[in-house]
Records
---
Amino acid sequence: MPEQSTNANTVLITGASGGFGLEFAKQLELLDYSLILHGRDKARLQMTMNTLKHPERHSIVQADLNAKHGLTSLLHAIEGKNLIGLVNNAGFGIWGGFLQTGVVPQIDVIKTDLKAPIALTHALLPGLLRNKGFIINVSSLAGEYPLPYMSTYAAAKAGLTYWSEALRIELDGKLRIVTLAPGPSPTGFREISGMPHSTGSFFRTPIAIIIEAALRTLKKGGGYCIPGWRHKLLYAMQKTIPRVIGLRIMAKQMRS
Ligand SMILES: NC(=O)c1ccc[n+]([C@@H]2O[C@H](COP(=O)([O-])OP(=O)(O)OC[C@H]3O[C@@H](n4cnc5c(N)ncnc54)[C@H](OP(=O)(O)O)[C@@H]3O)[C@@H](O)[C@H]2O)c1
């Protein structure tokens, strides 16, 4: 059962049409939450819905977070819903040399991965605070280290991590916040980014382990969550290998 004292039990998951979002949906349903599954691709959202045990408890909302009125239409669609939780999960990255990749997709990465979570949280925070609810911000270990050939993505995730961690302390005792920082994982992310298949495979961690770790951190009251031993190892390397060497290794890895 949801642990909160209010009777609100609806959770909005952005980017629920696959990958982490799909797994969040499965695991949050097991905790008895009602879910609002957000994404752009209706057919894939419906596939998420079809994997759930009680589809009658959940709903689907379509909105493109990069479109001019995308965020407004999402907020409009969920107006009146008494939310207990928000999972800011929708996101993507663009792989390639900075100059070779168009500026529009680069800016779209900032819009989806950084601007949307901040704007969504700001709009939904009063209700979440009233319900003593929670927020899970899906950031990345890319937010801990500059990433050649995915420079804008790392910048967006660094921003998201810093914002989320600051907010977590600011709202301590009022709202639980998890900043989730996974490394490479087997979702649709790599294919969408255009990244070659070989990079980062040793550190790949199963999706279920990542979401379980996030929800364990939430149960403990929130925190910064690096899931699984492989991602913890990657983080330790990010923090110990001198940057001048680490950046060259990363550039080689990312270029291949
Ligand atoms: N996989 C990894 O290696 C990894 C590692 C660390 C962090 N992350 C983060 O994990 C989060 C989830 O990604 P994933 O790995 O699960 O990848 P994914 O399978 O590609 O899922 C991404 C989700 O984000 C949604 N999305 C993307 N752009 C959107 C937009 N403009 N408007 C609305 N929804 C949008 C997609 O919805 P539609 O398909 O319906 O458009 C999809 O549901 C992202 O924030 C990503 O940065 C991933």
---
Amino acid sequence: MNKIYILLPIFISLFSNLSFASSPKSSLISDYKYSNGINNTASLQRGAKYFVNYCMGCHSLKYMRFSALAKDIEVEEKLFFKNLVFTNKKIGETMEISMKPSDAELWFGAVPPDLSLIARSKGGDWVYSYLNTFYEDDDRPTGFNNLVYPNTAMPNILVSLQGSQKLVLDSYNNPVSFEKVSDGIYSEIKYQKMTNDITNFLTYVSEPAKLKRHSMGFWVLIFIFIFTIIAYYTKKEFWKDIK
Ligand code: HEC
């Protein structure tokens, strides 16, 4: 009897997942999967460039230092400053912005949050979906709404690249697909690649130590492997005369 009570939450979560998966809304969202590649330095470099150009006007990364970023994405300091730092910041400073929260509130109706930890709190798939699922909505002050963050106050700032899209609903008002209204400068694939790079960059920012951990893990395993061989032969040598 006790066991059943223990298993009950598992069953409930299993069935709630099933019903979640079968709803059209979530199936449209689940089309948007980000492919993680924080060890892909080229992708992180592109992501950093996009972030500085398109996002940092509004969003800060207050836990990230320019110096740590330059080192991790392997960009020489001079080049880094030339391409990625547009203000009079110094290399040791964190990536904060000068927009006042009170002004932001006035302009957008919400303060653009710091994005240092967003990929950890909401996950890479969510961030990627957010950047891909803005759609036209005349009832919103910005003219756009978002599938994963309904009624978001953020303007659809990448619309010129992605192009504009409409949400198609079924007869039960469930979202089923997007329909292109106008083309953007980028092809669909190129836009997906771009937003994947941004998501990749934000995933790295949310846990920069992961990069080191990954590369260190490799060397730790090599060490254990070599040490095992040495230990084996040492043991053989020690026991040779005793047997
Ligand atoms: C013009 C200002 C502006 C720009 C530029 C901008 N955003 Fe935003 N963003 C906002 C605002 C305002 C919000 C808050 C939305 C809300 O809470 O309704 C927001 C929210 C977000 C969120 C959700 C945060 C959360 O806590 O749920 C993410 C993720 C995000 N932005 C990513 C980006 C990325 C990536 C870019 C660059 C491609 C970008 N934003 C560019 C204004 C901006």
---
Amino acid sequence: MSRIRGKNTKPELIARSALHRLGYRFRVNRVDLPGKPDIVLPKYKTVLFVHGCYWHRHESCPNATTPTKNRERWVEKFAANVARDRRNEVDLRREGWVVTVLWECELKHHPSEAVVAALADAGMSVSDVRRARLDDSELRRAADRRFSRSWRSSDRQG
Ligand SMILES: [Zn+2]
């Protein structure tokens, strides 16, 4: 759940590194906006959420498992999370924001592609020249170097 998630998780840092390399200016953790979007691109009136697959229930994702114990309660809890995410999206759109989601598993496995796809989703196309600035292993290394302690918390939460 975003409420209990730590700030500066590794997926967030990877996403931010990628955006930085692509030349985008952004702000992080705008608490004044619905759902407290992780990344805000003011110039494009676009917000990006970096969602953990488990708590935010990434569809068809192997990380979005459901505990067998107290299953019904978990199902209810997850449904409430998803409903809250939807409400936040609706509220943001109503305020004129473009909303897009980056999933943790995608940022982990193919970060460059994930970020470019999310931007495309938001109607921002990245040219091949700019796309060439992104390198998956370099993005991961940069996040490791700068915030070596951040991965643990997000890893276990989905
Ligand atoms: Zn996933």
